[in-house]
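Attaching the record inline, Q. Sequence:
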Amino acid sequence: MAYYKKKETSARTKILDASWKLFLDQGYANTTINQIIEESGTSRGAFYHHFRGKEELLFQLASHYDSTYEDWLDNVPSDISPDQKLLRFSQYVMKGLETSRFVTLLPCLYGLEVMTEYGRPIINPDRKYYQIVLSIIKEGLESGCFQSELSPNELTEYYTILERGLTYDWLLKQRRYSLSQYAERIISAFVARITKR
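Structure, as predicted:
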C-alpha cells in the first residue's frame, strides 16, 4: 500500500514509499540511502535527481498530511460558521497527528526541521495547511464572525504557531497525553478571542 497519496508509479513515488516503509520498520537513523534505493528498485541517479538527501524524504511527510487536509476541506459542511470550521479543522489536524501511522517519525521530523540548512516544509506558507487556515480566517473576518486589528496573515501565523507549539510540547513529553484534547482547550481560547460577540 502506497504511503504517498498520489497514485503513480514514478521513481520519486517509489523512493518515498520505500523510505517511509524503512523509516517505520527500522527507524530514520538506522535507514541508509542504499537501503532506500534497493527497497525502491530505483537507482542512485534517480534518488539524487529527486532528493538532495535522506532528510528531504522525511520532510515530505508534510505533503502527506496536506493531502488529507484537502480531503477534509472537500467534505466540510458549507453551512457551519468560520469559528466552528476553524475549531473542527484544528481537531482534524491534531487527531490526525495523534493517530497517524507516522507518529513515531514526528520527533525526528521536528528535530531535523530545526537543524536543516534546506527549506522548512512545516512552516512553508504555501502548504495546503496554511492555505486552509488563511482561507477560514479570511472568511471569518469578511463575514464579521471574527474581529481583530491583526491582518489575516498575522492571525494565521499566530494560529499556526499555537498548533506547532502544542505539537512540539506533546512530542517533548513523549505523547503522554491526548494532543487533540489539550489542543481543543488552547485553540478554543484563541478562536473565542477573535470571535465577535
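The longest helix spans residues 152-172. The chain has two domains: 11-54, 60-194.

More tomorrow.
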